[in-house]
Specification:
With 294 residues, this protein is mostly helical. It has 3 domains: 69 residues, no CATH class; 103 residues; 111 residues, no CATH class. The chain has 16 helices and no strands. It starts with a helix and ends with a helix. InterPro entries: DUF4116. It holds the Pfam family DUF4116.
Length: 294
Amino acid sequence: IALAAVRQNGLLLQHVSSSLQEDREVLLAAAFKGPIHAVKHAKASLLSDRDLVLSLLQINRLALKFARKLVTDREFMLHVVTVDWEAFEHAAPDLRKEFGTMRSAVQRDGRVLRFAHSDIQKDRGVVLAAVRQNGLALEFAMQALRGDEEVVNAAVKQNKAAWQFATRGMQEKFGAPGSPLNDIQSTLAYTRELVSKRAIERDLDRERWMSAVRQDGLRLGEAPLEVRDDADIVSVAVQSDGLALRHASSRLQGSLQIVVAAVQRNVEALRHAAPELKREPTLLRLIKEHDDLA
């Protein structure tokens, strides 16, 4: 019965018996159904299980932030980089500012430089290791290194699209005869193609989030900021569950149209509206109608 329940609503994990909160199958079912923060109700012993957490990671990388013991485990987090480099965002701060750990991490996937402490993002040795593994890691280096000839040359050699992250001066240099990018028109065409592919990926991702919040508005809380700032997606989310307004960007929490839709669904959503909207006549009327019905 408990397994069937969490398959319908992952948050029901908090209400099952203590023994079931230690059950791997129940936890995986809760994570799969979502919202992913349901996993925080699992027993700590489960969230310290490496294999289980890796399985959760395959469902949603946000699950990792609830594995408080493992995010401090150097070897485990280095393995995570090879599974999903973006999940390294949840690594403990001490790991992300430790030079040895970050050097090993960028050698596995250079893009984890994005999550490194600023002192590491300006370390020439670590940045060189990162861009040699993945040229696009140049985006996350400090500006001085994005103007460093050896660093930029290594990045462009690994991935010619990395030139877009170099400083203007270095871009001009890489466009000169004899440079790795002597055919600047070819590079521009390649970059346009790359941008086009990324746009398609964003559209597909947008559709996935739209579908997710249509089924459960509170899934908006798992989305990146660009999704939580998308008026169409947020509108669908608050129509599904008015309390999804709490996860909207501050800009959209100040949108009268979206706030009205949220309050119509759940009057409690008003607490998440921008302060300047809370005295809006339209919203006050909705609250009065709700109170009259109550």
